[in-house]
Amino acid sequence: MTNKNGHVYCDSCGNYLGDLPLMLHDEHGHPTRSMVYCPLCGNVLSYDDVPVAKESDIDEWFTFCWKIYPRKSSRVSARKAFAYKLPKDYEGAHQKAQRIYRTIAKQVQIWTERDQSEEFIPYMSSWLNANFETVQKKTKRRKTK
Ligand SMILES: [Zn+2]
Question: What is the rounded distance in angstroms from the CA atom of residue 70 to the CA atom of residue 35?
Answer without folding.
Answer: 36
